Amino acid sequence: MAHHHHPSHGHHFKHDEPVDAKPLGRAFLLISSFMVIELVAGLWTNALVLIADAGHMFLDAAALGLAWWAAKIAARGADQKRSYGYHRVQVLAAFINGITLAGLIIGLSIEAVARLLTPEPMMAIPTLLVATAGFVVNVIAFRLLHSATDNSNVRSAALHVLGDLLGSAVAMTAAVAVYFFGWLYADPILTLLIVVILTRGAYRVIKESTHILLEGVPRGVDLAAIRTTLADQVAGVQQIHHVHVWGLTEEKPLVTLHALVEEHASLQTVMTEIKAVLRDTFNIEHSTVQIEHGQCPDD
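RE: above sequence
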């Protein structure tokens, strides 16, 4: 089963929010401020590889920012206008980030191909210094996050930062190649390498957020298994139908279902047992169950 390590009760995380939010916030501020420096440096030194690495940092800063924000917002409950609370905004933000990155990827690719056709000079030493500083910033951010890796949100953010070390290393390599060998093609070729890494990240972000926004069934949840398990394990249940499972976010599955129940069964007992099975076996905390004695009124 996916996500067994953090059952969420109602709309609140069980984690101690302050523990997680602080390192995430610090890492986010560190990486996003360096991203701006790297972008400006890339434009100044004419190093496309730095601009690409700044794009990679944008992906990481977005992941960190969303994880930080998720840790903060978990404390905020629902209100009249948003009965589910505000968790979905994370998903929407991730989707917009993914689309933004897709635009950046196209721009970088076009520019890299243009530079392969007519190579442009770049300032190698400043590029090397900035790329090295980026490497150091990522190491610091990783250390910050590593101190708080009990939460899956923080863990995935830490992995992003590790991936970005690769981007900085690639940029350093390009600078060294240009400085020592005057090989100008290093910049566009290695930019395309970062673009490949970026594309994978953007694709994953868009795919996951779209799935949630389209009310897709969360990863690791099997509708058929829910139907058969409930019918088998709960006394008095004859059949389960109209099962809908969707995710508020990746970690918060919600379910609605109809249960056909024998005439003499105790409704309260059946309901309690169904919810217990959903919670214990499927890790679904939030369920709405419709109990029926005969023909389903929706059919």
